[in-house]
Sequence to fold (401 residues):
Amino acid sequence: MRVALTCHANPSHLVGVLAAARALRLGGHDVAVASGPAVGDRIARAGFPLLPVASLLSMDEMMRARAGAVRPARPGRPPAHPFVTPSTSGQAAEITTVLGAWKPDCVLRDSTEMGGYVAAECLGVPSGTVDIAPLSPVARDGALPELNRLRAGFDLPPVSDPWHPVRPFRVGLVPDVFYPDGLRWPGARHYRPSTADDRADAEAAASLARPAGAGPLVLASLGMNAPHCDPRSTTVLNAIIEALGGLPVTGVVALGSGTDPGRWPGARAANVHLAAFVPQRAMLRSCDLFLTHGGFNGVREAFDAGVPMVAVPFFGDHPATAARLADLGLATPLDLAAVTAATVRAAVAAVLADTGFQARAGLMQQRMRALPPLDRLADDLEAFVARTANHVTSSTGRQRS
Fold:
């Protein structure tokens, strides 16, 4: 079976997509990844052919484009649908052309990337999603009309379900308990991705481990995007460093790739190690607390390591994720606008002192480890395609040529 995976040109999005691609290749399927040229090297290093989609830009490319754009005097209202933007229609058209030439039997897409969803319907093949942003606000007011406007541009009929792009075949990477009741669908699959670490990652993590008797180990990271695209991140990082500096802990703070810790102009503390990048998944296994922005990759890795969290959400699905973590007793959320060294210090101290957080994180770790391995995806996707190949969407009547 030929499987095309589509993904935004964002390294954090590729984490789950490439994990699925590896599982499908291991299952004997022919796999290619459609994404922007900016991540072509990453895809090639993983051993997959790139189907280049020039309109899928990296975060850096988007920021440069925005910096050089002529901005209207009155900017329009932000889209109600988080993933249907002014660029989505053009991306969908380009992806349809690219995939049409490759002729996949199905499309599996990064759940934030809508072009693959449109392309699959236009080509008459089944589609599914690798759910890298489970709690994104795709059902808020106005989102469904925007989804249907996107569909209308490709002569696709309207749908009544805002979750239509995700519902047919969802590849969940965390236990279903993380999803609120309304999003726990009978047909959804949930898997545990491989946790095999590269040896270099394990060695780097060991080099950052706490000295004997140095107190709890706290890892802080705002992910791959916020440190580069959100100016509030500097204020938050400074508050985190000052907060950890005032606690009997060993802190490790990831400042963001490309940031030279030696030239960091902000706060410093003797018990806080600053790094541009840390091997997060490997290091979390030694941590007592994870201070996170609420990005899904980090949250998923914390689940697998059994580590409680303090969450400072920035944008996108971060606020909903932080709220869900609080509902499950796995994290204390902080309001970004109210973050100070004092509020961070109090939250970290409270989570470390409350053994209930550790117990609940341990239970989530058990649930993660009870999930079937992602290797099963190959068989499950093949069965899904076999059931639906001739019924991609009953509303379109389109058949694959």
